[in-house]
Fold this protein.
Amino acid sequence: MVAADLLRPRDADALRAELRQVATMSGMSVVFGGEVRDGVLVLSEFFGTRTVAMRGLIVSPTSGVGGAAVASRRPTSVADYRAALTITHDYDAPVSTEGLRAVVGVPVVVDGSSRAVLYVASREAGPIGGRVAELVLRSSRRLAEELMVRDEVDRRLRLRSVVPPATPVAPDSVVAEQLRDLHAEVRGIAQTLTDGEARRRLRAVSESLVRLMGGADAAETAPALSPRELDVLSYVALGCTNIEAAQRLSLRPETVKSYLRSAMTKLEAHTRHEAVSRARRWGLLP
């Protein structure tokens, strides 16, 4: 398994989280969606459905509401699915079995490609209100931003050739700074995740980056820094101020200052720069 595989949490988990939030905040009867795989949309996540008629449904580009959204990369809606003339009716059977009438499909667009579709639907005919549509649009944008970050992290890892263990090579200063930036970014992403397992896996990848830089595995006598303290030190190592680190970690500056002070105490450091130096010496930072 390559580093990129270890790094990326399941995109379906992020999709499900956004759909759950839409279902909670919109009050719509049915909320569902799926990822675009090999050019086709596969419906996999459902809230409020009464049947399994649409579960696993494969939606071709341009077909139905979702296919039209995938192809156009724009929201698509119908006030009454049964009578709609603006879409194909390839999926009338499963949609009718579920009893859906009004449907809105919003694509999640990353780098010009549809990666998923979020749907809201009602069992009554009539246009779905602008407030709900805007809610789904915001959710699709958040998911698109999350997928962009994941893609960029994967891209950076792929660009870094793995050095054979038998012939370790010290990275030059440019590569070292790039890896340190990536290390901080990975820990920053982990900080924003609500999935504990995904967060643990990202932090494990950050530790792998430390070893890739030639840092020794932390010995038993190494200071036991908490994940949050290491998150803060990672950005301090990049030259970030407390305010900048707080912005990147979605924390308050006072909280960052508290974590930094605690880390300095554990590392017996008198300055933030000395704390970074000691953390690197212990193999806790790249």
